[in-house]
Amino acid sequence: MISVLSHFLAFALSLQSAEGPAPAPEAEAGSEALRVVELFTSQGCPMCPGANALLASLGEDPDGGVLAIAYGVDYWDIYGWEDTFAMETFTARQQAYVDAGEAHRVYTPHFVINGAPEKIRYSEGRVRTAVGAAPGLPSLVDAGLSEGEIVIRLDGPVRETPATVWLVTYFPGVETRLIEDGPNAGQEMVHYNMARDIQALGEWTGDALTLTAAAPEGGLAAAILVQDGPGGRLLGAARVE
Question: What's the predicted TM-score (pTM) here?
Answer without folding.
Answer: 0.86
